[in-house]
Specification:
Elements: H1 2-19, E1 31-34, E2 41-44, E3 71-73, E4 79-81
Antiparallel strand pairs: 1-2, 3-4
Length: 83
Amino acid sequence: MKYIFVLALLTCLVCASIAQMPCPRECEEDECCTGGGYNRHCRKLGGEMEQCQAKNKYNDYRTACPCQEGYFCSVIGRCQKYE
């Protein structure tokens, strides 16, 4: 029983460390770090009608970056210009 508990604890620790993996390099000012687990990479901020994710306080993005300055991420996940 003790071994099962230790194995479960180690599994949780490994999963938590994978979820918080940083990007392999420091991203530029016009980029953000996207992806999950070991597949993290820098990606350009979204331009007009490009896929986006809303900014969040953790700077944690899975599928796309927030939009460039002057754009907002619409409810359909696309960058649109402020008017």
